[in-house]
Amino acid sequence: MANTIEKVSIIISKGSLEGIYPGLIMANGARAEGIEADLFFTFFGLDAIHKKRYEHVKVATVGNPGLHLATLAGGLPGMSSVLTHVMERKMGKLDIPGIPEFIEMISDTGADIYACKASVDLFELTKDDLVDQVKDIITVGEFYELAAGGEIIFT
């Protein structure tokens, strides 16, 4: 019989739409399967849990090979906003929630959400800057303690 995954710890380090959603989708899927899940937001991934930013996350258009756009086209004014709108509309048709709703949903399923202390300090943030679903601001060492015995997924 194959081993089953009982626990995942997902690290989200990118602050773009396509950098945040994979981790949220994986955490949501884990919880739906009864798998314990922790989310650890670091560096620009903090935008997903930052009260003033998490409703304004955009698609990264410059240097994003998945868009199949020339770098010059990706840098045109408004391109990121237009492509973000298109992507959000497509996700809405698939009933994929926006980041604020997704964070709340995942937290409500029992997944724990953490912010990286080094990144919070680097960007001069406090817990008050972060959404209420953030359980704690922890160090990398504390993250490893929480992740012990599970799979670590870096998105």
What do these coordinates show?
By secondary structure, the protein is an alpha/beta fold. The protein is 38% helix and 17% strand. It has 6 helices and 5 strands, in the order βαβαααβαβαβ. The chain has helices at 17-32, 71-74, 79-93, 99-108, 117-122, 140-147; strands spanning 7-12, 36-41, 112-116, 134-138, 151-154. Strands 4-3-2-1-5 form a 5-stranded parallel β-sheet. β1, α1 (17-32) and β2 form a beta-alpha-beta unit.
What would a concise description of this structure say?
This protein has 155 residues and is an alpha/beta fold. It is built from six helices and five strands. α1 links the parallel β1 and β2.
Tag the structure with descriptive keywords.
155 residues; Hypothetical Protein Ychn, Chain: A; five-stranded parallel sheet; 6 helices; alpha/beta
